[in-house]
C-alpha cells in the first residue's frame, strides 16, 4: 500500500508540442501539458465538458521518448507522482507550481 501514497495516472491529449531542455550535465528534460476531459449533466440536463490542464515533466529516457514520438494533440497515458516547487518573481512575489513527474508513458494515438 505504500506505493499508492503519491501516485498519479492520467489519460489526456497534449496541448502543445513538448518543450525539450538539454542540460549541461547531459540530462534531458521534457516539459508538456495534457488536458483531461470529464463530461457530466448539469441541473438543467445539459451535457457539460470540464477540461483540466496538468503540467508534466519527464527526465532521461522518458524525455527522449517524448521528444521523438509525442506531439501536440496526441493522446497519451502517464503515470507518475505529484511534485510541488516554488520560485520568486523579479518583483519578489513567491509563486508555487505543482506538476506531475512522469515515470511511465504510454502512447495511445497512432
Automatic annotation (TrEMBL):
<keyword id="KW-0238">DNA-binding</keyword>
<dbReference type="Pfam" id="PF00436">
    <property type="entry name" value="SSB"/>
</dbReference>
<dbReference type="GO" id="GO:0003697">
    <property type="term" value="F:single-stranded DNA binding"/>
</dbReference>
<dbReference type="InterPro" id="IPR011344">
    <property type="entry name" value="ssDNA-bd"/>
</dbReference>
<protein>
    <recommendedName>
        <fullName>Single-stranded DNA-binding protein</fullName>
    </recommendedName>
</protein>
<dbReference type="GO" id="GO:0006260">
    <property type="term" value="P:DNA replication"/>
</dbReference>
<comment type="subunit">
    <text>Homotetramer.</text>
</comment>
<dbReference type="InterPro" id="IPR012340">
    <property type="entry name" value="NA-bd_OB-fold"/>
</dbReference>
<dbReference type="GO" id="GO:0009295">
    <property type="term" value="C:nucleoid"/>
</dbReference>
<dbReference type="InterPro" id="IPR000424">
    <property type="entry name" value="Primosome_PriB/ssb"/>
</dbReference>
Amino acid at each position: 500500500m505504500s506505493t499508492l501514497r503519491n501516485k498519479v495516472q492520467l489519460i489526456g491529449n497534449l496541448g502543445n508540442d513538448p518543450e525539450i531542455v538539454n542540460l549541461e550535465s547531459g540530462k534531458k528534460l521534457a516539459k508538456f501539458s495534457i488536458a483531461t476531459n470529464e463530461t457530466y449533466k448539469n441541473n438543467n440536463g445539459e451535457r457539460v465538458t470540464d477540461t483540466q490542464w496538468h503540467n508534466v515533466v519527464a527526465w532521461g529516457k522518458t524525455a527522449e521518448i517524448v521528444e521523438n514520438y509525442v506531439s501536440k494533440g496526441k493522446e497519451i497515458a502517464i503515470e507518475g507522482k505529484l511534485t510541488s516547487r516554488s520560485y520568486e518573481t523579479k518583483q519578489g512575489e513567491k509563486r508555487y507550481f505543482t506538476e506531475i513527474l512522469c515515470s511511465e508513458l504510454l502512447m495511445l494515438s497512432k
